[in-house]
Amino acid sequence: MSVLKSLICGLTLAALLASAGSWLGWRFAGDLPTDVEMRSVVAPLGVEGELWRDDAIATWADERATPMPWIFGTEDAFGPGFVIFETTEAVTDLGPLFTHVREDGWRVGGDHTAVKEDLRLSAVVEGDGLVRVRIERAAPMAAIVLSILGWLAGAVIGGLLGRRRLSLKPTVFAAAGVLFLLPNTIVATAGLIADQIALNSTVGFPIIWNGLLNFGLCGCYLIGICLMVGVFFIDWRLPGPAAPAPLPPSGPESPSA
To answer: Would you call 234 exposed, middle or buried from its count of C-beta atoms within 10 A (0-12, 13-18, 19+)?
Structure first.
């Protein structure tokens, strides 16, 4: 049971500190291409189109190419900002686009994706033949490193804290805190794995602190963190076990009268 408690506490705190490390690391993200630069990238398509952008570090992630799309690629996920060019005419061949970006120094991968330095490009052909080209930020190396360091530190600290013996009330608080933080434990752990996949591919990076941007999950996380802090406050305030009463001193028995 002690090993299981250490494992659960370790994973919970590891995911929490990994999310914090990733959030901090994303503050070092670079800029997106300007509108002029974006139109230069898509010029080989040879058609007119509409351009829109969202430069926020974390914004709506509609139609992203990411690892683990069942977690990070849905319309409920968030992405690291983007510039999108959507054609107003049907395009039958994406070959000229990817030939152009390859000559411009991009590394082209499968599924109409490419990577260059701290940017990721993806192209999607809609059902009516229109093409949507998206360029978004890649995760800065600071986000990768800090999330891994946060996970390792959380795993060690949480594992050690999980070995503490608690009374009933702190145990109930801790169990509730773990449950409220469970969504972050799942998403952040999957995000660390997805980050490593994205590093060696051409797809986009997930935002592993995704839940902090969701109103419902944010409330769960805040409650979970408060409960976990309450555990240590209660444990610190509770009196320790009473010391055993001292034994009477032993000495020679007095002679009976």
So the answer is: middle
